[in-house]
Amino acid sequence: xxxxxxxxxxxxxxxxxxxxxxxxxxxxxxxxxxxxxxxxxxxxxxxxxxxxxxxxxxxxxxxxxxxxxxxxxxxxxxxxxxxxxxxxxxxxxxxxxxxxxxxxxxxxxxxxxxxxxxxxxxxxxxxxxxxxxxxxxxxxxxxxxxxxxxxxxxxxxxxxxxxxxxxxxxxxxxxxxxxxxxxxxxxxxxxxxxxxxxxxxxxxxxxxxxxxxxxxxxxxxxxxxxxxxxxxxxxxxxxxxxxxxxxxxxxxxxxxxxxxxxxxxxxxxxxxxxxxxxxxxxxxxxxxxxxxxxxxxxxxxxxxxxxxxxxxxxxxxxxxxxxxxxxxxxxxxxxxxxxxxxxxxxxxxx
Length: 350
Ligand SMILES: Nc1ncnc2c1ncn2[C@@H]1O[C@H](COP(=O)(O)OP(=O)(O)OP(=O)(O)O)[C@@H](O)[C@H]1O
Known about the structure:
Elements (H helix, E strand, L loop, with lengths): L16 H10 L11 H16 L7 E4 L6 H11 L4 E5 L6 H9 L6 E5 L6 H13 L1 E6 L6 E6 L4 E6 L7 H4 L4 E4 L5 H15 L5 H9 L5 H18 L6 H10 L9 H12 L8 H8 L3 H14 L3 E4 L2 E4 L1 H6 L5 H14 L1
Helix pairs in contact: 4-5, 7-8, 7-9, 8-10, 9-10, 11-12, 11-13, 12-13
Bound molecules: adenosine-5'-triphosphate (ATP).
Adenosine-5'-triphosphate binds next to helix 1, helix 3 and helix 9.
Main location: cytoplasm
Protein name: Holliday junction branch migration complex subunit RuvB
EC number: 3.6.4.-
């Protein structure tokens, strides 16, 4: 068993250590620099401009969307557009209401508090946050048991920017306290090409338009992946060529890393290939499919399948997993039905 996790893959959307080190340099610093997500950008622009005109603190903002689409980047942009400082933390880091009280009580007026993975906060912290968001006040509990007392503490107005991979996971009372919710979608290929060009400029790598398109096409709609693939292509171009990235160089480099033209990696293709070659395209149960590819059930279900489903290559049905016609085409195989038809046609021709 490989026990593969999403963050160990070149096409994983969750940040790895190298991403952490270079992402800061690649982050757009203003809304004008932020590529794609036109609707979200326009809406956010209005929210922030209006707050600035009123000389008020911006409303609380909820950003939802898959990892690597730019939620942290947007939170930082909110702070810079409001000329406000930003404090960054995450749901899992706040286990006790006291942790949150300490952060909230040290905020400056107008500060942006970025709370990543807000759906993973503990319940007591969440309840404290309701009051802080609405009334800019927290009750700090002193003591334990019947002798415990709540001491109210006034907070300066601040802007909470919450990020979550799924807004549906948030309890409605929390969701309702955001003045503005932005849903971020996967990026269009053209937008990702722009991301590649922009990052290449910052990293001082020469990339021609076809090279950028080749990288964008394999980036699974995600800027973080586009930036990571660009770095691997840069290595290849430097070691095996003259440093310039063309479509040929990008394709060869990403073939070495087993990321195919549609952004599928070894694991994705192993799942599809087993489904097609061993089970005739399904339906087959998840357990059987996982054994066939030598991976844990969870790895197949949570790491490989979401992208295959999104790409319309695999479908989850009550009877099991099935491949779509596009899956056969992608792996260059002929579906059994078409094969049978072909045989019949040949007999008829005779
Ligand atoms: N619209 C964009 N234009 C240019 N670069 C972008 C854009 N969105 C994201 N990026 C780049 O993608 C990388 C990942 O973005 P970011 O860290 O903001 O994602 P995220 O959604 O917060 O991910 P996570 O939820 O995993 O923290 C950053 O290096 C950033 O530079």
